[in-house]
Known about the structure:
Number of strands: 24
Strand order of the largest sheet: 8-11-10-9-12-16
Strand content: 15-25%
Shape: globular
Number of helices: 19
Structural class: alpha+beta
CATH architecture of the domain at 61-228: 2-Layer Sandwich
CATH topology of the domain at 61-228: BirA Bifunctional Protein, domain 2
Radius of gyration: 31 Å
Distance between the termini: 47 Å
Amino acid sequence: MADDKDDIFKPKLGRIRSLGGVRSKNYLNRVLHQISAAGKTGFGTATAARRFSGYRIGRGNDALRHRRAGHRFEPSYRRVVIKTRIVKLKAGGLDAARSHLRYIQRDGVSKEHEPGRLYDAAHDEADGKGFLDRSEGDRHQFRFIVSPEDATELYDLKPFVRDLMAAMEEDLDTRLDWVAVDHFNTEHPHSHIVLRGKDDLAKDLVIARDYIAHGMRRRASEIVTLELGPQTEQELRQKLERQVEQEHFTDLDRSLVRDTVDGIVDARSDAEYPDARSRHAIRVGRLRVLAGRGLAEETVPGRWRLSPQLEETLRRAGQRGDIIKTMHRGLRQAGLDAGASEFSIYDSGDPRAPTITGRIIDRGLHDELNDGHYVMVDASDGRVHYVALDPRQDVEDLPLGAVVEVTPAATELKPSDRAIAQVGRRNGGLYSRDAHHEADPRASAEFVQAHVRRLEALRRQNVVRRFADGSWEIPDDFEDRVETLAKNQARYPGQVVALSFLTLEQQVKADGATWLDRQLLAKEPTPLRGDRFGAASLAALHQRQDHLVEQGLADRNGQTVRYQRNLLRLLRRQELAAAGDRIAKETGLAFAETRDGDRIEGVYRRSVHLASGKFAVIEKSKEFTLVPWRPMLERQRGKIVSGVMRGPSASFDLAKKRGIGIG
């Protein structure tokens, strides 16, 4: 009989563990995660581990496995290019979805150069608002760009898209809720499809990645091939012949790279049939073109060495060609003329990249799938610059005609970063306000607070760690981490800041402090050259002078104009007072003017664009105020913010306040 002591146990008390919240994971998942993090292959053989990739999880895998989504590609099948992006609709995600729908319906994308028309499975005029209302609460959204290679031969893309989505419904075994817009504003007509991330049972729609990568393309290829018929040998040969002189990365290049062994392509002829000899001649012709561009070299007759940078170089050349075409189109739409020598693609990697000032004459998407925008700036240096934007930048702040400044993206340590590192080294790897004052007794509270804001931004990038007492852990490799972060964030050419949301013509008689006023009062104004923006700015400056004289804000004595003292501040106050009265009538709240040194506290509601700049509406229970807007405020919309007015700007303290708590 077992000893009674076997049944005696003593509970060991400890802290309360997780009770299975949304973030909890079961034991097996945690083990697998740690194995993956350690770089292991998992349980079983390495072959079995390689077989499982997760690409087959989700709907559509059965259709691929049973070959219902199409058969093996043959040369006669017509190609269809499909680009896919899965967008998570987090906080504010539906606003981004609304902007995406609005943009793909922009003016000039249809065959008649009119706005794009939204359609769905049953209607040629779909209800975009209804689609977004149905998408409220969705976890994610699918966005597809579908471009048949022979789209120009299709009279209309709508039947093709509807057939494709119907085939997907069959393969995925669910009804799909989608809308689409056809674009004909490029050399390759294509369709933008937006698909809700819900199935017909209102559950999250999960599509197997294998199906997205292969099944959709096969289905689309089948439909186009059925519509236009299989490609003939003559069509295939003509398409390859057109690729011989192309400046971008082509199918011919792809086949050459695929056939490379140790960097060498064997292009010796062993063809017995006329078609094979023709294709061999096309490949050799492409190799000779690549050799002329320094991307291939014939080592011995029939054997060619390809440059390791072949694909990257050709892709960049193709992108540059697309940009030049975009710039020509933008200039035509703006009614301007510029020679090739006046074109510039802004490159912050060039150490000579200047800071430029000019007006936006065109804007659009250079990456339609990821909402990557560009702007064309007719600058004061007499050139037209193409600038790719960071996708995080709000293009609503960059309207056509706005005067902007483009500066190279910073890739080096900021003075504040060096100061933080120095304080950390003096204080055993910790930064605090007191430690900063000890290291620099002359530093003002506002100066130290600016460093705290910088640390808060770095914390969100996992560079530093904040403790409950308000101090910060500064790692030994702090400077290296910040430099790496800066280089990663500088992958977009430049930072674009709006100097005025108004056009030059609107600034002439504007009530607020405009870019023209700052030019008139500057000790070193921006030099203005050229017969486009430069000439228009000079004319607008003279007209603005006349307007200020008429308003009694300046005196003219011959060729000399004397401006009223503190003119910019006066213009700004007048405009803010007028804007405050207008918003007061809309909200029923009283407008409270702020002055230098005033404390700001209230709920950030929204922003407004004025001639004097962008301002934030900060509300209290019975009144509101207008203060200069800062990008950091957008993360606090609808929340209480606090700060201090510092001259023409405002300083906000958005760091989390920690009080007494348990744990």
